[in-house]
UniProtKB/TrEMBL annotation:
UniProt name for this protein: Protein DETOXIFICATION
Listed GO biological process terms: xenobiotic detoxification by transmembrane export across the plasma membrane
GO cellular component terms listed in the entry, alphabetical order: membrane
Family in the record: Belongs to the multi antimicrobial extrusion (MATE) (TC 2.A.66.1) family.
Coiled coil, from the record: none
Length: 510
């Protein structure tokens, strides 16, 4: 069976499933969705024309481009704060850098991971035209993430003693503790921000996020300058500027959601229904957080382990630069991962398994192309890239040696980003969490320890261990993706969507 005319013509802003007008309180009929799955499932194995591939590329790039910009702009908030602090002295810079790393590991990564559960819930609900459920899911996520932020705030409050207890320099620990305390308001703002981003992203509304992130960044520079240099707060002013800027971004997006016509169907106001079935969200949010945290923590652990190597100052400097470089170029595949999670969740929710499969095939091609281009660029600039971070010839030379390893990890990381995005779109977070646990903590970290401390390969050995983990992760997720029965995934999506609430009126299938 060939693709239906509706499936060929639906766009990023048009409904993904043409069904009858809502008559059951959902916005659609479960019977219609099941018919949609049946009508499109026969075309999963049909040939795909070049026009369809080009159209899918346009949709993915239309989504990914603004998402990459959003990732970069939000990443720059922390970077700019640390840059301002760097002008205050070495101790202030060390404290702010350590506090930022600690905050990422103990707070931001967890909230971002839990918020990614909305990729599945909101994305599939939007595809199934259950528009009002997007607002319910977002409110539910905001409630849960706010509760999670409370114990995280206590952890941040005692950042200084915690760092000192694990052997960090007392002066740096104390400075990091002061910085982290002024960043506590960031936690709650970041929780709400993640919920709003996923809410809008799954509706293919990405340009407003890019605009608000850009405005926030410009204001952040001004706020940092005022609080760091003019108020007398010093590095505490930079931390407070982070909190203010995150809340500004949240307010911008909240106002857009409330007053924009694009969100009229998906945001109908606060509802008590958001407090029901919270456990269902938590069951998906915990493995979602596991997927993100297990991977991010392993990269951070590499930098910590580098401090135990001979010549720790050089090793830590080079691996920190490598990690920052990897984080910077990671924004591109991260945007592709967000785009594919939206495309897959929308199409599965709409009952279009063939379109979901095509989207995955196309995004893999884009990820490979992007990885090769970025890898070639990094390889060509390997001899002088280190000067962007240091004037020490030893650091620059070592980084040039590390660059081929970094290029390899970036290529693999790009592929796993889009495969992980597909997993979120399908709702495979639990599988993804187990894959990441095995890849990074049964293979990656042990390999890093073996290569660095037993075989004495040094810092390069630590990063080669991460590459081993990435290879296992990519192969595992690729096998799972290739063995996917897309018809079953579409049916699971419809069951997840329609089990999330109780219909007001049930219409029998004829």
């Amino acid at each position: 069976m060939t693709t239906t005319e509706e499936e060929q013509k639906h766009g990023l802003t048009s409904p993904l499933l043409q069904i009858s007008e809502p008559n059951n309180g959902f916005g659609g009929d479960l019977c219609d969705v099941q018919k949609g799955i049946s009508s499109s499932s026969g075309g999963v194995s049909a040939s795909v024309g070049s026009a369809q591939v080009i159209e899918e590329v346009k949709k993915l790039l239309w989504l990914a481009g603004p998402l990459i910009s959003v990732n970069l702009l939000q990443y720059c908030l922390q970077v700019i704060s640390v840059m301002f602090v760097g002008h205050l002295g070495e101790l202030s810079l060390s404290g702010a850098s350590m506090a930022t790393s600690f905050a990422t590991v103990t707070g931001f990564s967890l909230l971002m991971g839990m918020g990614s559960a909305l990729d599945t819930l909101c994305g599939q609900s939007y595809g199934a035209k259950q528009y009002h459920m997007l607002g319910i899911h977002m409110q539910r996520a905001m409630f849960v993430l706010s509760l999670v932020s409370i114990p995280l705030a206590f952890i941040w409050f005692y950042t200084g003693p915690i760092l000192a207890a694990v052997g960090q320099d007392p002066d740096i620990s104390a400075e990091a503790g002061r910085y982290a305390r002024y960043m506590i308001p960031c936690l709650f703002a970041y929780a709400f921000l993640q919920c709003h981003i996923r809410f809008l992203q799954t509706q293919n509304i990405v340009f407003p996020m890019m605009i608000t992130s850009g405005i926030t960044l410009l204001l952040h520079v001004l706020v940092c300058w005022l609080l760091v240099f003019k108020s007398g707060l010093g590095n505490r002013g930079a931390a407070l500027a982070n909190s203010i800027s995150y809340w500004i971004n949240v307010i911008f997006l909240a106002l857009y959601v409330k007053f924009s016509k694009n969100c009229k169907k998906t945001w109908t106001g606060f509802s008590k229904e958001a407090l029901h079935d919270v456990l269902n969200f938590i069951r998906l949010a915990i493995p979602s957080a596991g997927m993100v945290c297990l991977e991010m923590w392993s990269f951070e652990s590499v930098v910590l382990l580098s401090g135990l190597l001979p010549n720790p100052k050089l090793e830590t400097s080079v691996l920190s630069i490598s990690l920052n470089t990897a984080a910077l170029v990671w924004m591109i595949p991260s945007g592709l991962g967000g785009a594919i999670s939206t495309r897959v969740s929308n199409e599965l929710g709409a009952g279009h398994p063939r379109a979901a499969r095509l989207a995955v095939q196309v995004v893999l091609g884009l990820a490979v192309t992007e990885g090769l281009l970025i890898g070639l660029t990094l390889f060509l600039i390997r001899g002088f890239w280190g000067y962007a971070y240091s004037n020490e010839e030893e650091v620059v030379s070592y980084l040039a040696i590390m660059m081929p390893v970094l290029v390899t990890s970036n290529f693999l990381d790009g592929i796993q980003c889009v495969l992980s995005g597909n997993a979120r779109g399908c709702g495979w977070q639990k599988i993804g969490a187990f894959v990441n646990l095995g890849a990074y903590y049964l293979i990656g970290i042990p390999s890093s320890l073996l290569l660095a401390f037993v075989l004495h390969v040094g810092g390069k050995g630590l990063w080669l261990g991460i590459i081993c983990a990435l290879m296992v992760q990519v192969v595992s997720l690729l096998i799972i993706t290739l063995r996917t029965n897309w018809d079953k995934e579409a049916k699971k999506a419809s069951e997840r969507v329609y089990d999330s609430t109780i219909p007001i009126k049930i219409t029998s299938c004829s």
